[in-house]
Structures are given as structure tokens and as C-alpha cells.
Amino acid sequence: MYDPITMKLNVDPFILSALKEDITSEDVTTNAVMPEFCLGEVDLICKEDGIICGLDVFARVFALLDEKVEVNLFVKDGDFVKSGERMAKVRGDIRVLLSGERTALNYLQRMSGIATYARSIAALLEGTGIKLLDTRKTTPNNRIFEKYAVRIGGGNNHRYNLTDGVLLKDNHIGAAGGVKQAVHMAKEYAPFVRKIEIEVENLDMVKEALEAGADIIMLDNMTPEIMREAVSLIGHKAEIEISGNVTRENIERIKNLGVDYVSSGALTHSAPILDISLKNLHPVS
Asked: Of 183, 203, 214, 262, which is most buried with the most CB atoms under 10 A?
């Protein structure tokens, strides 16, 4: 999943923050029933069908609490898992297993839910040549996990953050004074290796974006009829992205338009979790 440097620099701090959120000073319940070390094992069980994602993060939660915890995985990220399937066995200090359980499962359930939802949409686009993209509509401090889950599900990442690329949206256009002005200003400011993408809402804006030399034109919240006109107008003069309330239920309307990309905030902000549990905790000798 993540290389060791990325894990230590960019992933561990978020996991540690989540653990601190859950354990202010102690896990009072666990300490009450398990005051001393006791070696134990617990099974990771999937409770519904889906795509598993986030196993390294799941294991890392326990490792940050106690590096002696062993997580024996029977599946890997991207695998289709079935309800009732045992996906891993976790072995270690029972106090650590109990204290880390919820944080570990929160990551795994959330990431697996996103991967499962992304896979369902990506499957609908198979054979069209359209790339499915995520957005920046992610849970604060969880973007690194959620965007990874999109990739595991068969989607692709749009820009990771505001430093990652130029995307001129409606308020940028308003601030610049118009479509042409915004594109020209971006071209002057941004390094020449950066593509300039602009969001448009009608055919007049499409024409202005083309005249200004935008590299990617995002057709935002247009009707199918207007989108067809816009695609015809653009031709091969720019890459085309479709955006605006795209979900699994309505993606059929854009499959045959001949566009390059479709972006969906629903991939990360509306995906339900995948139900997963740690079960059968017991001491071992």
C-alpha cells in the first residue's frame, strides 16, 4: 500500500491522532477487565460482500500501540470478500487488541466501503474509455486513506490537493473577471508543465475556454442535451471532463458522450461503510 517513508511521514501521524482521540488517558473499560498482560487472538470477519481495502492501515493501528502484535492476513487489498469470510487473525496483548479495535475497524470499514462503491461505478464505465475520477470532497484528515481506496476500487485520483494542479472553478472565474481572463492568468502564473483545467456551466463559457486555450474543460451540472452540444463544440481541441452530482444511479447518461473523464464526489462523501468486525477474542497460551 504505502512505502515505509510515506507510512511514517504521512500516515502514522493521522493514525496516532485518531488513537489519541479515542484514548485520552486510558481505556478504562479494558483496564477494568484486563489489568495485566494476557496473550490473545481475535478474528477479522467480513459481514457483507464487498471489496476489502485498508488492511495495512488496520494492522498499523495495532503496531503503533504495540509492535509485537501480529496480524496474519488471508486476503489482500482489492480482493472481493464475502459475508462470513475470515480475513485475518490478530494475535497480541489483549489490552492492545481491545483498545485498538474501533480505530482499526473505522479505517478498514470506511476504506472498504469507498473501494466497493468505486468498483461498482467503474464497472459501469468498462469499455467506454472514460476514466473515473474522485474529487477533494473527502473527510478532513482522511484524504490519504480515501483517495487510496478509490484507486483500489478501480477509480483514479484527480488532484490530491490545491498544490497539485490548476482547476479554475466558478469563484476563481468570478475573481478573475471571466473565463478568458482566468485561463490567461493561470497560464502566466503556473509552470508550463501544468495543464489548465476550467469548469464551465454553459456553451458560451465553453467557447471562451476554447478560445483561451484551456487544456481540460469540465462540463459541470449540464443537461445531457447541452453536454452533447458542448462535446461536439470542443471536438479534440481539449480534454473533456463531466462533473456535477454524478452517482452510480445516473452515470448511464454520460457513457456514450465521448468524454475523457467523469469525476464524482460521491465516491468519497457518499459511500457506505463495509460491515466488518473483530470476533471470537480469546486468550491463548
From this structure: 214
